[in-house]
Amino acid sequence: MKKLGKVLHVSPVTKRLILRCSEQLLPKGYVVDATGFVVGKIDDVFGPVTRPYCAVKLARGIDPEKYVGSQLFVVDVAEKSKNLRKAY
Predict the structure, then answer these.
(1) Domains (range + CATH), the chain
(2) What is the pTM for the complete model shown?
(3) Coil, strand or helix: which one is 30?
Protein backbone atom coordinates (compact mmCIF):
# COMPACT_ATOMS: atom_id res chain seq x y z
CA MET A 1 0.00 0.00 0.00
CA LYS A 2 1.53 3.31 -1.14
CA LYS A 3 0.54 6.84 -0.28
CA LEU A 4 -1.48 8.25 -3.20
CA GLY A 5 -2.28 11.80 -2.15
CA LYS A 6 -4.77 14.17 -0.59
CA VAL A 7 -8.29 14.60 -2.00
CA LEU A 8 -8.71 18.16 -3.28
CA HIS A 9 -12.33 18.13 -4.41
CA VAL A 10 -15.11 16.21 -6.14
CA SER A 11 -15.63 16.76 -9.86
CA PRO A 12 -19.10 18.32 -10.24
CA VAL A 13 -19.82 16.61 -13.56
CA THR A 14 -18.36 13.11 -13.23
CA LYS A 15 -18.53 12.80 -9.40
CA ARG A 16 -14.93 11.55 -9.30
CA LEU A 17 -12.46 12.41 -6.56
CA ILE A 18 -9.60 14.64 -7.74
CA LEU A 19 -6.30 14.10 -5.93
CA ARG A 20 -2.86 15.65 -6.08
CA CYS A 21 -0.62 12.59 -6.36
CA SER A 22 2.48 12.39 -4.22
CA GLU A 23 4.46 10.56 -6.94
CA GLN A 24 4.25 9.40 -10.54
CA LEU A 25 2.07 6.34 -11.04
CA LEU A 26 0.34 4.28 -13.66
CA PRO A 27 -3.42 4.70 -14.17
CA LYS A 28 -4.40 1.42 -12.55
CA GLY A 29 -4.81 0.28 -9.00
CA TYR A 30 -7.32 0.22 -6.19
CA VAL A 31 -7.67 3.30 -4.00
CA VAL A 32 -8.17 2.64 -0.29
CA ASP A 33 -8.54 4.80 2.81
CA ALA A 34 -6.41 4.52 5.97
CA THR A 35 -8.49 1.58 7.25
CA GLY A 36 -8.02 -0.45 4.04
CA PHE A 37 -11.58 0.10 2.78
CA VAL A 38 -11.72 0.16 -1.03
CA VAL A 39 -12.90 3.61 -2.14
CA GLY A 40 -12.54 3.11 -5.91
CA LYS A 41 -10.08 2.79 -8.79
CA ILE A 42 -7.72 5.23 -10.47
CA ASP A 43 -9.53 6.34 -13.60
CA ASP A 44 -7.23 8.98 -15.08
CA VAL A 45 -3.84 10.61 -14.48
CA PHE A 46 -3.32 14.13 -15.81
CA GLY A 47 -1.33 17.32 -15.27
CA PRO A 48 2.42 17.90 -14.93
CA VAL A 49 4.71 14.89 -14.92
CA THR A 50 6.47 15.87 -11.70
CA ARG A 51 3.31 16.17 -9.52
CA PRO A 52 0.32 14.80 -11.43
CA TYR A 53 -3.34 14.81 -10.50
CA CYS A 54 -5.51 11.73 -10.66
CA ALA A 55 -9.23 11.09 -10.89
CA VAL A 56 -10.69 8.25 -8.84
CA LYS A 57 -13.83 6.46 -10.00
CA LEU A 58 -15.76 5.64 -6.85
CA ALA A 59 -17.16 2.27 -5.89
CA ARG A 60 -20.94 1.96 -5.58
CA GLY A 61 -22.47 3.48 -2.49
CA ILE A 62 -19.49 5.69 -1.59
CA ASP A 63 -20.21 9.29 -0.52
CA PRO A 64 -17.52 11.39 -2.26
CA GLU A 65 -17.85 14.38 0.09
CA LYS A 66 -16.77 12.16 3.00
CA TYR A 67 -13.23 11.90 1.60
CA VAL A 68 -12.53 15.55 0.68
CA GLY A 69 -9.37 16.62 2.50
CA SER A 70 -8.41 13.08 3.54
CA GLN A 71 -5.34 11.05 2.64
CA LEU A 72 -5.85 8.07 0.33
CA PHE A 73 -3.58 5.19 -0.61
CA VAL A 74 -3.15 2.99 -3.67
CA VAL A 75 -2.78 -0.78 -3.90
CA ASP A 76 -1.51 -2.16 -7.20
CA VAL A 77 -3.94 -4.52 -8.93
CA ALA A 78 -1.35 -7.31 -8.76
CA GLU A 79 -0.84 -6.76 -5.01
CA LYS A 80 -4.52 -6.64 -4.05
CA SER A 81 -5.03 -9.05 -1.20
CA LYS A 82 -8.02 -10.56 0.54
CA ASN A 83 -7.56 -8.45 3.67
CA LEU A 84 -8.88 -5.31 1.93
CA ARG A 85 -12.47 -4.51 2.77
CA LYS A 86 -14.41 -4.78 -0.49
CA ALA A 87 -16.78 -2.16 -1.78
CA TYR A 88 -17.13 -3.61 -5.29
Answers:
(1) 2-79 (2.40.10.230)
(2) 0.80
(3) strand
